[in-house]
Each structure stands twice: as structure tokens, then as C-alpha cells.
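Example record for the data management plan.
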Amino acid sequence: MAIDEAKLNDLLGKFVTDVGAGFHAVQAVIGDRLGLYRGLADCGPATSDQVAAHTGVPERYMREWLRCQAAGGYVTYDAATDTYSLTEEQAFALASPDGMSLPAAFGIPVAVAKNVDRLTDTIASGNGFGWHEHDALLFDGTERFFRPGYVANLVSSWIPSLDGVEAKLQAGATVADVGCGHGASTLLLGESYPNSRIRGFDYHDASIETARKRAADAGLVDRVSFDVAAAADFPGEGYDVIAIFDALHDMPDPVGAARHIREALAPDGTFLLVEPNAGDAVADNLNPVGRLFYGASTMICVAHSLTEDPKTALGAQAGQARLTEVLNEAGFTRVRRATETPFNIVLEARP
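Corresponding structural encoding:
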């Protein structure tokens, strides 16, 4: 076997990066839980002793954690003063309560890894692995990872891109948020459109319990409610808007879910579908974003979709053409891409 040393070294470089990223994911979760990013933002530039004193974490652990973060480019190191700090960009992404919450996203692969034995058996057998079977860290990490994108785009960009929907919501509309999880998108709609009534539905009772608590804490129970219900049989009819955020591709029967949504909409209602951004061809998705979503899809999205018939398993990188096929089969005759972000495509579907 003839080995091309340059190609091998290139592969090994990817290997070192990825194994390091695996350790970084665990360290990011630990740093998030212990408040280390926030602590560094508060006291930096600072030595490891100073950050340790500020956060209450023993210095020897603090020193190694900071060095790993600096080596990965998540923390800035000044060799002249032996101090660590966060740039404004690093602080926004890692430490700010109103920032991107990137450390929470690392909780997603960490949560999945906790079930590596069961997932191995599941994949080998071709069976499914339900969303509810994962560690609770997955639910928290997913909500905290997606929420900043919703905050940045839902009201300012996505809703205005839909034909006539913003005016309806401002005047007072009935809305269903299907597959709402912890209710980040549902509560945001309720906060932004006080004249509208928003109902969140999810089959996962633990997530609905969390969503109800957050609605109470936010003082929104007068216009936002949450109920346990699946996408194919949630109650109500005549909705002005029904939305699914980053969840249709997980469902065992996305056509059935979309068909029920069409039937539950008012005649002039709108289905807002937000899905991970992807091209229609595999080659279009062979990039870092595609890699992230294909990885999650293998162990979360496809695995859940295979839990029940018809086991459609769209996957997180289905692409607009495949999603449009699903919507057309469900009876939606008008489907268009309303807008997009680097992570999402936003489709507007009407009967």
C-alpha cells in the first residue's frame, strides 16, 4: 500500500483538531456550569490565580482549563503578562447573558455521548432512539443554542418576510408553535405580539413542564399556554399562523404532521417552517455547518424519526426541494423561501 505522506499528515491534522474538540466540548460544559467564562469576562485580563480567586475554582484546575481554552482560540492569552482575557467577540459568544450561548451548544454532543452504548446498539439494529430517551442536558443545550438565533431573527426578519403575517400578529392572531420544546420561540412570540394568543405543543411532557414554568416566570400566562400534544394531533382549528422551528425533520411522519397543520389552519392561514440551512445535493453540504448538522442528525434527528412508522427520517440536511415535496404531499400548494440565515432556511407554506 502506497501512502501519500502529505495526505496522511493532512488527515492527522484533522484528527488532532477533532479529538481536541471532543475534550473542549466537555471543558466548555464544565466552564459554563461553573461560570468560568463569565468570571473571566468580569475580572480579566487576569492571571490564573486571579481568575481562580474570582470564581472559587482551585488554581491548578483553573490554569489548565484556561490554557486549553487559549490553545483553542476561545480565550486570549498575553504571554508578556501571563494573563488571560476575553475579547469583545469572545465575551459575546461565550459569556454574555444576551450573547450567543456557545458553551451551551457543546452540551448537545456531551449529552449524546452519555448514551453511546445504547446508540451504538440502536444504529446497529436500525431501530430508533427517541428524543425523550436522551440525557436532559440535550434539551437544555438545544434550547439555549437555538434561542439566540430566534431572538436575533424571528421578530426582526422572519415574521416580516411572510406575506401579511406581521400585521395579523400585531392586530391579534391565534398561533400554534408545534414541537416547541422549552418554549423559547413561543414565549418570544408572546412577548412581541401582546394582542395575539400563542399555544405551544410538544409530545415531551418534561419540556412542556419547563415551558409552563418559564411562561409563569415571564408573566405571560395570559396569552401563552403550553400543552402536551404530538404534531399530528394537536388540538384547535382556524389558526392564523402555525410554526415549526427546527423540528419537522425529526418527526417520524412529517407529511402527516404537515397535513394536520394544513387542516388546522384558517383558510388564509400561514405555515411558518424553519429548518436547518442545507443545499439540495450532498455536495452542497460538505462544509462545517453541514458536518455539524449531519453529526447531530445521525444520533438525534434520524434516530428519533425511526421510532415510529412511517420512519421517514428526513434528516437535518433535507434541503428545500425535499421539504417542498413533503409540504406539497400534505396539501400545501404554495411554498417559497421567505428568507434565510447561515444556520436556517425559512419557508412560507399556504394551502
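Summary line stored alongside the record: The first strand starts at residue 76 and ends at 78.
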